[in-house]
Amino acid sequence: MSTDPFDEKAATWDADPQKVERAGAVARCIAASVPLAPSTRLLEYGAGTGLVTQALRESVGPVTLADTSRGMRDVIEAKIRAGRLVDARVWDLDLERQPPPDAAFDLIVTVLVLHHIHDLRSVLTSFATLLAPGGHLCIADLAKEDGSFHGADFDGHHGFEQRALTADLSAAGFTDITFTDCTELVRDGRRYPVFLSSCRR
């Protein structure tokens, strides 16, 4: 039996209009922040069901979607078979525990994933390894919050403070680091801002 909590959520993930709307908002922020072209090789890390990549699909070249959840990957693979995601491949990849594959990308996107990652600097360094020179990393994630978003049992990051994340990105070799307001999450009547940070290798 799977222990990944996202496995059981995967089948109905896209049925939530807020998730689809949020993916579209993040994709628009990315398109406004970094150059996209038909030759752009995209990796979405922690892709879920691939909603952000779907929203960017017509603006980029070949896409790779990586997620540790078997359920999420199953949904992506069904989209590929149905022709809803073309020129796409799927990876089971956990950069906290695995070395970066021998591949190169022009753009890496990760959305609401980094606050779940403990060894942040290692993952950011792997992103830098995977990016071609001049390639871009786009991170959409929670701004620093009081811990109420996930609750007391959550052992990840309670969002990110810009100065601290900038230091981590710089240590991993990234430059031209910017932050913009992107969208928000609403949970139990509270609103949690989501930023987009873009940077260059």
Describe the structure.
30% of the residues lie in helices and 27% in strands. It is of the alpha/beta class. It has a single domain, classed as 3-Layer(aba) Sandwich (Rossmann fold). The chain is globular and about 40 Å long.
Q: What is the secondary structure topology, with strand pairs?
A:
Layout: H1 7-10, H2 17-33, E1 42-45, H3 51-56, E2 63-66, H4 70-81, E3 88-91, E4 105-111, H5 120-130, E5 131-142, H6 162-171, E6 175-187, E7 190-200
Parallel strand pairs: 1-2, 1-4, 2-3, 4-5
Antiparallel strand pairs: 5-7, 6-7
Short description:
The chain has helices at residues 7-10, 17-33, 51-56, 70-81, 120-130, 162-171; strands at 42-45, 63-66, 88-91, 105-111, 131-142, 175-187, 190-200.
Order of strands in the sheet with most strands: 3-2-1-4-5-7-6
Distance between the termini: 39 Å
Kindly provide the radius of gyration, computed on alpha-carbon positions and rounded to a whole number of angstroms. 16 Å
The structural domain count equals: 1
- Count of runs of 4 or more consecutive helical residues: 6
